[in-house]
Amino acid sequence: MNTIYRFVAATVFAAAMAVAPAAQARMSKALNDTASTGMNAIDHVLQKPLGGPVYEQKRFGDHLFISAGGAISAYGHRPVDGFRPGLQAEISLGDWITPVHGWRMNLDGGVHSRFTGEDWKVFGAVSADYLMNFSSLLRGDNPDRRVELIGALGAEYQRIRYNDLWGNELGLRAALQLRFNVQRNFYIYVEPRLSLLAGTRFSDDDMRRFRPDLSFNIGLGYRLLNKQERLSGASQFDCAPDDHLFFGVGGGAWAFTRNGSQEFRHPNGFGSFFAGKYFSSAAGLRLKGELGGIGGNGTPHRTLAIGSLDFVWNLNSAFGGYRPGQVFDMSLNLGPVLAYAGNVKGNYYPGAEASITALFRLTPEWGIFIEPEARMFTRKFTRELDACAHGPFLSVSAGLRYTIGNFSHNHPESYADFLKARNNFLTFAVAPSWRRRGDYGTGFVAQAGFGKRVSPLSSWRISARGEVFSQAPNYMSLGVDADYLLSMSTGMAGFNPDRVFDLSAVVGVGGGIARRSGLVRAMVEGRLGLHGSFRLSDALDFYIEPQLAANTMLNGSSRHWTPELRVMAGLKYKLGTSPGVLSGLAAGRYADGRNFVSLTGGPTFFSSTFIDKPHHLSGAIDASVGRWFSSVSGLRLGYTADIITRQKSKGKRPYIHTAHADYLLNISSLMDKNPARRFHVIGILGAGAGFSNLSGSLPGLMLEGGVQFRYNLDRGIDLHIEPDVSFYPNRVVISYTSDTRFVMIPRIMTGLSYRF
Fold first, then answer.
1. DSSP for residue 696
2. What is the CA radius of gyration of the chain?
3. Considering only CA atoms, which of 45, 120, 37, 48 is closest in space to residue 77?
4. What is the mean pLDDT of residues 226-236?
5. Mean pLDDT over residues 510-538, rounded?
6. pTM of full prediction above 0.90
7. CA-to-CA distance for 513 and 522, rounded, in angstroms?
8. Helix (H, G, I), strand (E, B), or coil: what is residue 316?
9. Nearest Cα to 359, choosing from 274, 456, 292?
10. Where are the alpha helices (DSSP H) in 161-283?
């Protein structure tokens, strides 16, 4: 026995001596340092268990995370023939108390699965989960770990709508989340989840009181880094190489959420444009406009316009510090929204919206985005636009986003080229146009404008525009447009005046007067487009500009926005740098010929109002004498005889005689001091007195405006084309135009001038 005792004692002593160094080494580690020691069951048998990993100076919310995703689900059904899976979306917010233990709150919504022929069950849910990070539990806390396995246990409440009835469900749920950390603050997750629910049983529902809900979720998430992690490698917001302005253009589809046997109606397309600015690294504002159609499949087609002002929360910066160079960026947008719908009783509908914008950067300035969005309006919105609709109004869009960067830093050579280039320009374009609503036929648009490239990236343009459509209700309009052009080619590759092709984005507004079905009213318009310019020479470009516009006539009982597509094609004449309005005459073609006489003639279009009958194609001749006081300014005096086509019911042909004085502004010389120029664009503004040969007519004041395109031939002879329009009071031709207040005579005059 003593021998046995001695053997046992020796064995225990030897084992103790062997374990002591390891235990001493292990005890030299911090009690919560499982990253170094790992998980060892002996720690829980031969000594006091080591503590789990903890965060030093833990505060509430300092390890916050937020995630959003979607799922397909099976709600009490087996996936056999006729099975239709459910669809749902979720957003979660949580916090890690320790590297192992945490919590999250969740909002879910969607539709439960069903079989063919059954109605959808629409639901919204709120839930709370306890989280355990098995990777941190077994292998210690490691912020650089790429893959983590996380378990969740929680409770869930659902509010369900089925066949216009409401019900409630309550239950427990369990999930296992596999998380892949793309970067320290951004992760992708996959999460199978099982919920066991009990609650309301609907009258024609064969579901049991206790029913399982199995779902497969996938999504994205952000986790908040601590202060040291956020500052490491981050940029200073105030010192960033951009001014935090961003713009975007895109398009997508939107649809109502449906009850009954349909989930969504057939989606309709829309276009969008937004502009915004970040005021801090994580927070900004965004103004967005969208225009598209809604309707079909049994409901009328209508125009739908939506405007919103969103608070933008940049999740990249909020959770990981300001890093503008990261390839992937995501933001959460929340804000008020106002919708306008045509041909409905209410027209305007307020609401609220929430969306997530995922951005993939191609360059520091350019990126591609996708944005799912949900909006909630008052019940009036769905009732008046689609009586079968309910719930949120959903959309998804994709497009291109541009952030104004430090152009001089990225392309320092561009400014030298820009200052030497021809940056003032004139544009002349025509286009066919089509209206989405109504049978207007094909339209015709003519536009003339002038503009300036104020930086290598930005240009502005002011244009006069006229438009007419071929069929009833005989829509016509005259207006002035203001456009902003952003050169995407220059933003990506720098300024190059010799570039063969330059692509710009266009956004603009316009206003004027329009006539439809005999009514003349004020008109406003907004539009988006692209401007593709092909270089023909140093001074001349050919451009194509597709535009998507929406316009409306004001002060009408049935006012609505009408979408319109135009494809403008025209010429851009580049003038160069302005010499100033007071520049004198240079030695050139005007120096030896300030005085001139001219003779012109051409067709006219007489109208009792802008387009009301009678319409008569007529003719006119004009003789003028004038003088140029400088290369920019001149004056002419003249006489015009308009020969109006005779009405069938009248026996006398009207003649209108006009004496006029016009101020001439040479726009070409105003913008580009070039004495050798042969081609000139001259603006005309004048007034005079007119009278006719009709009985009972009285003299009246005439006002006119136009533009002259003049080409200098040799020996002081000039050839010119002059479109203009004159306005007369009704008293001049009162017996010819009934009770209208004024008449207008547009003319296209062609002639010759002689300088001496």
1. T
2. 37
3. 120
4. 75
5. 86
6. no
7. 4
8. helix
9. 274
10. 227-231
